[in-house]
Amino acid sequence: MRRSFSLRVLIAAGLLAGCQTTQTTPVAVAATTEQAAAAAPQPRPSFEEWLKGLRAEATQQGIRAATFDRAMGSVRLSDRVQELDNKQPEFERQVWQYLDGAVSDRRVQTGRQKLQDNAALLRRLSQRSGVPAEILVAHWGLESDYGNSTGGFRVVDALTTLAYEGRRTGYFRSELLAALRILDSGDIPLERMSGSWAGAMGQTQFMPTIFLKHAMDEDRDGRRDIWGSLPDVFASTAAFVQSNGWRAGERWGEEVTLPSGFPYAEAEYNIVKPLADWRRIGVRPVAGGELQGEGNGSVLLLGGHTGPAFLIRDNFRAIMRYNPSTSYALAVALLADRIEGRGPVLGSWPRHEQPLNKDERMELQQRLAAMGFDPGGVDGIVGANTRNALRRFQATVNAVPDGFATKALLDRLRQASGSAKL
Fold first, then answer.
1. What is the DSSP code (8-state) at residue 7?
2. Mind spelling out the 3-state secondary structure of 35-66?
3. How far apart are CA 401 and CA 397, in angstroms?
């Protein structure tokens, strides 16, 4: 069910309210009331009151009242958006299951065709930005399946819902105001401003604030159209990736082999060392030879010590600033490699390992904490803190300290900490 509201009554009420400036509450009483209000949770204002405040803020920012009234006059709060916002992701897929879809043969073949179809445009943008054409195409493929899956939500409706009754109202209020500025600029008409349930827009899946900073009018038609103009889509992606710190002439990294006795406690995204140090201990490209270049890198293991290993560099982090997920960044990197003509990953993923569900991940964190291996909280998300806690536990039971959360490792934790359910 969707809930719609009219602005006509709100606008009239706002004008009347603006004339009522007489203070009738004694100052001392007002101060006491303010203190009490600050201590107690604030009730959410009615939607009508909230819209009046938003309208005042928007016009104060220079958004034309006519733009606001047209965009918000037919706005609808979406129960489906609210449902999706409240639904916590379970993360019950292993990285190789995600990569199977993200870097499928179909997506690789489509990417190669798209690269060929847009070769001149992509070459020009790559020369200008330093971002390789295959990286631009790979982002496009991951974000919207080459423009085929951009989301069917009205962006203004989605952002209004999240700004009014979502979990991060302040963030989405800023995004909603940015979306109104985009409409006010004439880049896209209201009826074409579609995107994901969270407000990510067009073929690039930019949030409105990212659009305002990085969207480009490459086809020079007076509009930054990331919904329908491929020149604008590719130029905007190039501008964003370049701004995220892409280093021209360098690769994102590569698949590597690790030497016997490798210090697995140092295989973490946030542990950065000079390439010379990794060379010295015997980290080698999987295809043979020596690691090339200078600078820094990190060893990334997303499938434990029996899975593939990757030496990631600064450009991998630039990809992550588009979407802060190591799995996403690896998918973009590997898809770009395949589109360029490189081969698939040579290492074998441990496909027999089944993912832990959220309850199991929380139990794992609880048992680690109970044994004195601080996982950084119990939230069901296996991040760097939890992996480091797992490594410390693995070292006590003579297991390879790779920090890879498995059902077998959870069983060992249960045995070590007592089988009673926490």
1. S
2. HHHHHCCCCCCCHHHHHHHHHHHHHHCCCCHH
3. 10
Contact between 6 and 72 under an 8 Å Cβ cutoff? The reply is no
Count CB-CB contacts under 10 A for residue 124. Answer: 16
Q: Please choose, from the candidates 361, 368, 376, the residue with its C-alpha nearest in 3D space to the C-alpha of residue 395.
A: 368
Alpha carbon distance 419, 138 (integer Å): 46
- Over the stretch 84-127, which tens digit does the pLDDT of each residue have? 998 755 567 899 999 999 999 999 999 999 999 999 999 999 99
Which is nearest to 157 in space by CA: 185, 107, 124, 194? 194
Q: CA separation (Å) from 372 to 231, 358, 393, 408?
A: 55, 21, 9, 20
Reading the block at residue 363, the tokens are 């139990």
Tracing tokens 């007002």 back to the chain, one arrives at: 30
Work out the average pLDDT over 355-379: 95
Task: Say if residues 207 and 175 touch (Cβ distance below 8 Å).
Answer: yes
Helices 65-73 and 155-165: angle between axes, nearest 10 degrees: 90
Q: How is 286-353 classified by DSSP, letter by letter?
A: TTSS---SSSEEEEEESS-TTS-EEEE-HHHHHHHTTS--HHHHHHHHHHHHHHHT-----SPP-TTP
Q: How far is CA 140 from CA 90, 118, 149, 269, 315, in A?
A: 25, 13, 10, 25, 17
- Tokens 């204002």 -> residue: 45
